[in-house]
Amino acid sequence: MSRIDYQPANAKLNGAYFTPDAVVRSLVSWAVQDETDLMLDPSCGDGRFLAGHVNSVGVEQDPASASVAKARAAGALVHEGDFFRWAANTELRFDCAAGNPPFIRYQLFKGETRAAAQALCRRSGAQFSGLASSWAPFLVAAGSLVKPGGRMAFVVPAEIGHAPYAAPLLEWLASQFAHVQLIAVRDKLFPELSEDCWLLYAEGRGESTHHLSLTRLSNFSASNAPPKVDVEVPLEEWRETWNRRLRPFLLSPDQRQIYLDATMAEGSRRLSDIATAGIGYVSGANNFFHLRPSEAKAWGIPRTVLTPAIRNARSLPSAALKVSDLRRMERDDAPMLLLNLRNQDKLPASVRRYLDSTAGKQARTGFKCRNRAQWYAVPDVRIPDYFLAYMSGRSVALVENEAKATCTNSLHAVTLHREADRPALAAAHASKFFQLSCELEGHPLGGGMLKLEPREAARIVIPTPERIAALDDELIGDAISELQRWRHYAD
Description:
Blueprint: H1 11-14, H2 21-31, E1 39-41, E2 56-60, H3 63-72, E3 77-80, H4 83-89, E4 94-99, H5 111-124, H6 135-143, E5 146-157, H7 166-176, E6 177-185, E7 197-205, E8 211-217, E9 231-234, H8 235-240, H9 253-264, E10 269-270, H10 271-274, E11 275-279, H11 286-289, E12 290-291, H12 293-299, E13 306-310, E14 320-321, H13 323-331, E15 337-339, H14 349-355, H15 358-363, H16 367-370, E16 386-389, E17 391-392, E18 398-401, E19 406-407, E20 411-416, H17 422-429, H18 432-441, E21 443-445, E22 449-451, H19 454-457, E23 461-462, H20 465-469, H21 473-486
Parallel strand pairs: 1-2, 1-4, 2-3, 4-5, 6-8, 13-19, 14-18
Antiparallel strand pairs: 5-7, 6-7, 8-9, 10-23, 11-20, 12-15, 13-15, 16-18, 16-20, 17-22, 21-22
Helix pairs in contact: 4-5, 5-6, 6-7, 9-21, 18-21
């Protein structure tokens, strides 16, 4: 296939990053079983997939990309426009579908396009939340146009292994195809992107399966058939045991079992059983609401309306935040004093002057501030027992809040239900198992980082100290290293 290098100017906005030739050749070979097969590419971009099989139909919303596709795949039929509207009205049905759907985040996947996608998916039997990125509805819509017995082969983001909105897609695929296989590729298919990608292959349209098949590859090389399956994942186990996640199956059976044994052991609890964990406050204007000690002194703002605040995990010590740490931050004149006016009936004159400053007049126009009853009253300011890192590299920090500071939404504020559970949490955090639980309950983010959403932090497992002492630290350490390699955090 001759290579035409074309990347639209709005590639990031449209989720358009074109696929390496080796991946294109393989996916087309997997999907197409006969030269007479009619193939669909629902987001054909510059026509790389269409050029691999002459009897093809593509849809592309970007005019410039569609023009390149028509030139590259002269024998294919290319429709210019929105795929979901086209799919809702076409009478064509296809022997197979292949491609690389756009990875448009839910914040940009909106309006009439989202409405058309949601309606089409509902008619096909799939229901997505408002947080679904565009690629998942693309696959349902494309799959609904595949004939009985047909096949699909697509590039998908690795978040298919953990994102909540990916679960309805996998449920739908399992109800519509006899075989559903995910090919997890550790090395990046798109080196220029922070996004990790896997591959999806499904065959036997019109039937169903009770398993999801998983193949783990260190790197991808071109092939004429899907690779051998490593793990058959029963849907019931995926749903009930692993919270609809495939990421745990990147580990060996022994590594998964040690985690399950500790999770199910008598006395083991989730973090939500012993504490409330939620992200800290959102100020709406961080530079305005967080003052340096020198600024507070210059404005004459009293300490009674200033609360020491931790703005990110980098400001935290390794074990406990002490008063001495806050004093050091003050000596460094860090912007660590939150203007905390939530319960102030009467504002001091110095505070009113600060609020009416040029910076204050600008801050109050921000979205968060202008939608508050009192624009200057930052909500959800609380003093937690612990800070838990929201995004982490090597390990997830849980830091005791001895200094009684507050924190922004870049950290989780963890408040114990009972003081009596403090020793159990401390013992769990000191173990390797805590880090493994964070790896399995959290999810990878671009750049090798691990992210813990509030719902994920709530699921961190807290075994009893006795159970922790009996665990195989070497096996757990190997499991942590393996998951970190998959999220590209260097050893």
